[in-house]
């Protein structure tokens, strides 16, 4: 099926995405309940977004969409196929090979999910050792201020150690979700441009 080919074809090197116009495969990673599904449905324009027709290939787990970032169109294939319950090294290895860039989610209300994000970051470094693989650490549910278990400063420091970007989001408030995607596209372009030069 078309969604199968999206996930599996040419996934090894991700070199195709070095060409302008070819889709970027962005992978959602993170523990259970952190908001990956909610993130993906905002991307897909599920709720009341005006541009839901733009989603060319949308299923539960894979969605392809064009977005405009800094005046230039980018095509993103968002993969939300990670089953946090079934994770093991083999599954993770196979899964991360499908991506050009990663959104590493945790919930600010759940310290265990933050620790899980750290573990996933370490696994990513091992499985995708390329130095400039774009990764954004995403602290979701920032609307739940009174249930916060992970401070912004701690997470920012952690991201610096991880050598990745950091953003806090709320899918419930639709806050910073698109900024996370814009950030990923900007990083992918920087990598693309540095390869060209
Ligand atoms: P997943 O397991 O990572 O796919 O997590 P889900 O997207 O299914 O979200 C788990 C639960 O957290 C659901 O009940 C969501 O409604 C809720 N949730 C997700 N994001 C937010 C958020 O930003 N704020 C709040 N308050 N709840 C959220």
Structural commentary:
One of its GO terms (molecular function) is calmodulin binding. Binds GTP saturably and exhibits a low intrinsic rate of GTP hydrolysis. It comes from Austrofundulus limnaeus. Its main location: membrane. Interacts with Calmodulin. By secondary structure, this protein is α/β, with parallel strands linked by helices. The protein has six helices and seven strands; from the N terminus they run αβαβββαβαβαβα. It has helices spanning 2-8, 36-44, 89-96, 111-127, 152-162, 177-196, and strands spanning 24-30, 57-58, 62-69, 72-79, 101-107, 135-140, 165-168. A seven-stranded mixed beta sheet has the order 2-3-4-1-5-6-7, with helices on both faces. The longest helix has 20 residues, at 177-196. Residues 1-19 and 47-52 have low confidence and may be disordered. The structure holds guanosine-5'-diphosphate. Residues 30, 32-38, 140-141, 143-144, 170-172 line the site of guanosine-5'-diphosphate (GDP). The site of guanosine-5'-diphosphate (GDP) has 15 residues, from helix 2.
Brief summary of the model shown:
Binds GTP saturably and exhibits a low intrinsic rate of GTP hydrolysis. This protein has 197 residues and is an alpha/beta fold.
Beta-strand portion reads: 15-25%
Category from helices, strands and their pairing: alpha/beta
| Widest beta sheet: strand line-up | 2-3-4-1-5-6-7
Number of strands: 7
Q: What is the radius of gyration computed over CA atoms, rounded to a whole number of angstroms?
A: 16 Å
Shape descriptor reads globular
Overall residue-averaged pLDDT value: 83
Largest pleated sheet: 7 strands, mixed
Helix content: 25-40%
What are the bound molecules?
Answer: guanosine-5'-diphosphate
Low-confidence sequence ranges: 1-19, 47-52
Per DSSP, the total helix count is 6
The termini sit apart by 37 Å
User: What is the H/E string?
Assistant: HEHEEEHEHEHEH
Main location: membrane
Function: Binds GTP saturably and exhibits a low intrinsic rate of GTP hydrolysis.
Subunit structure: Interacts with Calmodulin.
GO cellular component, one term: plasma membrane
């Amino acid at each position: 099926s078309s969604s199968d080919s999206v996930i599996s074809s040419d996934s090894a090197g991700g070199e195709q995405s070095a060409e302008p116009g070819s889709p970027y495969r962005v992978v959602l990673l993170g523990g259970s309940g952190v908001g990956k599904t909610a993130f993906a449905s905002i991307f897909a324009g599920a709720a009341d977004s005006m541009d839901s027709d733009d989603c060319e290939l949308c299923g539960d787990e894979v969605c392809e969409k064009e977005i405009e970032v800094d005046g230039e169109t980018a095509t993103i294939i968002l993969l939300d196929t990670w089953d946090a319950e079934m994770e093991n090294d083999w599954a993770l290895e196979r899964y991360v090979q499908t991506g050009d860039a990663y959104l590493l989610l945790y919930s600010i209300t759940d310290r265990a999910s933050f620790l899980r994000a750290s573990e996933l970051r370490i696994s990513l470094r091992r499985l995708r050792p390329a130095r400039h693989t774009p990764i954004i650490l995403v602290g979701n549910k920032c609307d739940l201020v009174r249930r916060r278990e992970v401070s912004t400063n701690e997470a920012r420091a952690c991201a610096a150690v991880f050598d990745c970007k950091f953003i806090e989001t709320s899918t419930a408030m639709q806050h910073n979700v698109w900024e996370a995607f814009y950030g990923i596209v900007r990083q992918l372009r920087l990598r693309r441009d540095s390869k060209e030069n």
